[in-house]
Amino acid sequence: MTVLANAPLPAPVTDSAAVAIDHLNHAFAASDGRSILALRDINLTVGALEFVSVVGPSGCGKSTLLRILAGLVTPLSGQVAVLGKPVGTRRQDVSLVFQRPALLPWLNIVDNVLFPLRHMSRPVGRAEIDRAMALLATMGIADFAKLQPRELSGGMQQRVSICRALITDPLLLLMDEPFAALDALTREELGSELSRVCAETPKAVVFVTHSIAESVMLGDRVIAMSARPGRIRRDCAVSLARPRRAQVVRESAFQEICSDVRDAIS
């Protein structure tokens, strides 16, 4: 199996990393009996408080990688540890945000946010309700707490989805193209809100996106992946100061990083 020269060295599985992946490979069984390789020799470490963006072309295995980290998919081979434990271990300190909100239509907004706690059989009292309301306020939608999901726009529903993922105070937040279905302005606003929330409650984040600019705007590092089978082509550090304003996209340093990531993918 060939490893690209500019791919990072194998990442040893350690207790200090939020994510540690060592020589991960994954394949799918096609309906015609073929085995389709989705991920090839992935080596990656994510620090305990790092925001790591993963970007690449459609079909490169980005979402598959995230689902492996969430314990929803069992890898073909390799070692994967999340917060010091083998992936697949039942845990409550990892949250996953999907591309679409998938809110429960029979619950109001605040009860949607509280649902993970009830699903885990954790007590929901005044303190938990106050925390849910504080998260909604952070996202600017506390005034809509008693409404039904159908009464909110797509962008507002995705804000609720993020609050729902944060209510358990996870140590690792996995985000699978959460802004992909939104218009450009809403996408920019939610990216800014996400950056602010992560600054206030530091945690490790692995953020999958198709947008190179978004990956650089949000990430401490950007992992650039090749077309299928997905391989890590480049691990780019983003040295831009935080907080990052929209105007940063016009700076030469930002454009140079985007160009570096684009070259790696193409």
Helix % is: 25-40%
How large a portion of the residues is in β-strands, by DSSP E? 15-25%
Poorly predicted runs: 1-15
What is the arithmetic mean of pLDDT? 89
- Strand neighbour order, sheet with most strands: 6-7-8-3-9-10
Number-wise, the strands total 10
Describe this structure in words.
The protein is α/β, with parallel strands linked by helices. It is built from seven helices and ten strands. The strands form two sheets. Strands 6-7-8-3-9-10 form a six-stranded mixed sheet, sandwiched between helices. A hairpin with a 2-residue loop joins β4 (77-82) and β5 (85-86). α2 (109-119) runs parallel beside α4. The protein is globular, with a radius of gyration of 19 Å.
Task: Looking at this protein, list some descriptive labels.
six-stranded mixed β-sheet, globular, 31% helix, 7 helices, disordered N terminus, four-stranded antiparallel β-sheet, 266 residues, alpha/beta
Give a brief outline of the structure.
By secondary structure, the chain is of the alpha/beta class. 31% of the residues lie in helices and 24% in strands.
Secondary structure elements and pairings:
Layout: E1 17-29, E2 35-47, E3 51-55, H1 62-69, E4 77-82, E5 85-86, E6 94-97, H2 109-119, H3 126-138, H4 154-166, E7 172-176, H5 184-200, E8 204-209, H6 212-218, E9 221-225, E10 232-237, H7 252-265
Parallel strand pairs: 3-8, 3-9, 6-7, 7-8
Antiparallel strand pairs: 1-2, 1-4, 4-5, 9-10
Helix pairs in contact: 2-4, 6-7
